[in-house]
Amino acid sequence: MNAFEALSPDALRAGRADALDGAVAAALAAHPLDGVDTEYPHYQGVVEGPEAPTRPAEKHPVFHGCFDWHSAVHSHWALVRSLRLASDHPDEAEIAAGIDERLTPENVAREVDYLDENPGFEEPYGWSWLLRLAAELHLWDDPRADAWREALRPLEERVRRGTRDSFLDVDRAHRVGTHGNTAFALAGVLDYARVVGDADLEREAEAATRRLYADDTAAVVGAEPVGWDFLSPALTEADLLRRVLDADAFASWLDDFLPDLAGPPHDALLAPVDVEPDEGDGAATHLIGLNVSRAWCLAGLADALDGREGPAATRLRAPLETAARRHAEAGAADVLTDDYAGSHWLSSFALYLLTRSEGGIAPGGV
Question: I need a labelling partner for 258 at 20 to 30 A (CA). Which of 137, 224, 319, 360 fits?
Answer without folding.
Answer: 360
